[in-house]
């Protein structure tokens, strides 16, 4: 089955700096890679996703890159703000397997004032 | 249009009791997915159901856990004879069809605490 590894487990940045979270996956059949943000005690919320037919996707301060050859994908947050502080999860799945996403273990991002 | 509704939000059970968690999908959605999140961990897939059918239960523990999605009413995740290791947040998601099935929007979750 799929195995997703996520690094780092914790990340502290100064407000305004950039944050990068990296994930690798093992199953070459995976073609869908979402990122979720989870605040303490809340549900995971989808913030951005990318499919394997593109290498990069951007939405305001958030961008995701995908390297299919190396089987890794990354989340980039620019101009970080205190409200970006949360746990971020990457995931991988294959269309046609009905949302059987495999999640990484999470990165706790703290944006310091 | 209300999102995925889960209840109870918090449930406390003693070891050996039963826990029932309910999930009402978004209006018009007939596919339901259950995920479990242990403390300080990511979400793990448990089961995928359509109305009256279990499609994929490869993530369900072999014993004590069961799920159903009847023709009428919410989907139910049932845990019999709970143990402390069952303490977790259980999240449900729904989709209209499997073709867009990867895009999951989760409910608020049910947090089970086993004493």
Q: Largest interface, with Cβ-Cβ < 8 Å?
A: A-B, 23 and 27 residues
Taking pLDDT < 50 over at least 5 consecutive residues as the criterion, the unreliable ranges of chain B are none
Please state the overall shape of chain B, judged from the principal axes of the Cα atoms. Answer: globular
H/E topology pattern of chain A: EEEEEEEEEEE
Count all strands of chain B and give the number. Answer: 10
- Give the helix/strand class of chain A: mainly beta
- The strand count of chain A comes to 11
Would you list the SSEs of chain B in sequence order as H and E?
A: EEEEEEEEEE
Q: Name the poorly predicted regions of chain A.
A: none
Per DSSP, the total helix count of chain B is: 0
The fraction of residues in strands of chain B falls at over 45%
Q: Bin the strand percentage of chain A.
A: over 45%
Helix content of chain B: under 10%
For the report, how would you describe the main beta sheet of chain B?
6 strands, mixed
Q: How far is the first residue's CA from the last residue's CA of chain B?
A: 36 Å
Major sheet description of chain A: 6 strands, mixed
Gross morphology of chain A? globular
Q: What is Rg of chain A?
A: 13 Å
Q: What is the subunit organization of this protein?
A: heterodimer
Mean pLDDT of chain B: 92
Would you mind describing this structure in some detail?
The complex is a heterodimer of chains A (113) and B (115). Chain A has no helices and 11 strands. Chain A is mainly beta. Chain A is globular, with a radius of gyration of 13 Å. Chain B is an all-beta fold. Chain B has strands at 5-7, 10-13, 19-24, 31-37, 43-50, 53-56, 65-68, 75-79, 88-95, 110-114. In chain B, the strands form 2 sheets. Chain B has a 6-stranded mixed sheet with strand order 2-10-9-4-5-6, with no helix packed on it.
């Amino acid at each position: 089955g799929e195995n997703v590894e996520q690094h780092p487990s914790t990340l502290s940045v100064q407000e305004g700096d950039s944050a990068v979270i990296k994930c690798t996956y093992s199953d070459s059949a995976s073609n869908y890679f979402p990122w979720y943000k989870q605040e303490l005690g809340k549900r995971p919320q989808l913030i951005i996703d990318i499919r394997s037919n593109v290498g990069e996707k951007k939405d305001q301060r958030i961008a995701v890159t995908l390297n299919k050859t190396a089987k890794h994908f990354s989340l980039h947050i620019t101009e970080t703000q205190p409200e970006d502080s949360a746990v971020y999860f990457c995931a991988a799945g294959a269309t046609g397997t009905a949302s059987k996403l495999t999640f990484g273990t999470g990165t706790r991002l703290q944006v310091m004032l | 249009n209300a999102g995925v509704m889960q209840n109870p939000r918090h449930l406390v059970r003693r070891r050996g009791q039963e826990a029932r968690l309910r999930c009402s999908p978004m209006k018009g959605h007939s596919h339901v997915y259950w995920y479990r999140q242990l403390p300080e961990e990511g979400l793990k897939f448990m089961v995928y159901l359509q109305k009256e059918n279990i499609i994929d239960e490869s993530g369900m523990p072999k014993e004590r856990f069961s799920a159903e999605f009847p023709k009428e009413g919410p989907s139910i995740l049932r845990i019999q004879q709970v143990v402390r290791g069952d303490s977790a947040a259980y999240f449900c998601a729904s989709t209209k069809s499997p073709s867009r099935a990867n895009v999951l929007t989760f409910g608020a979750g049910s947090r089970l605490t086993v004493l």
